[in-house]
Amino acid sequence: MQNLLKAKSKFREMGVTLLADKQKEGGGGAWKFAGEDNFIKTIQQPLSECGLEYVATLKAMPELNLNMVVATLFHIESGEQLQSSKILNDPEPKKDRNGNPLYLDAEIESGKQFGYWSRILGIRILGLSDID
Q1: What are the φ/ψ torsions at residue 59 (nearest 5 degrees)?
Q2: Contacts with 30 (C-beta within 8 Å, 6 or more apart), sequence order
Q3: Which of 54, 62, 84, 109 could make a disulfide contact with 91, Cβ separation 3.0–4.6 Å?
Q4: Res. 131: pLDDT tops 90
Q5: What is the pLDDT of residue 13?
């Protein structure tokens, strides 16, 4: 784990900053955040320069009827890795006027959850902030 931590420290010394490029409103307020594309574009080059790679995958666990986002930070040369994960909630699909679930909507919501958690886990595993 020593090689990974040294490379991660080098990454943090580079002062990588995420700039908030999206805004969401709700619950009586509004907040800005860095979107998923912004996150990926911002970290790619600095990670490469430090010999690191970040990968987020969706892990299906059919025996438990669960899906999980797994975020992994790899040290390329040594193969050392650091992981974080989050179990995804089953989205409640919206219903049409006849009360039938709109399955496409559930798939879209699942994709949104994956994007959100892969970004959040990446921000945390790298020690970044997405606040201006």
Answers
A1: -110, 120
A2: 23, 24
A3: 109
A4: no
A5: 94
Q: Is 130 exposed, middle or buried (0-12, 13-18, 19+ CB in 10 A)?
A: buried
pTM confidence score: 0.82
Q: Tokens 């490379």 correspond to what residue?
A: 7
Q: Could you give the CA distance from residue 125 to residue 71 in angstroms, rounded to a whole number?
A: 8
β-sheet bridge partners, residue 53: 74
Using DSSP, state whether 62 is helix, strand or coil. coil
Evaluate if residue 10 carries a pLDDT over 90: yes
Q: What is the mean pLDDT of residues 101-116?
A: 79
Record the tokens describing residue 13, joined without a space. 């010394």
Taking the C-alpha atoms of residue 64 and residue 97, their distance in angstroms, rounded to an integer, is: 32
**What would the two tokens of residue 80 be?**
């050392």
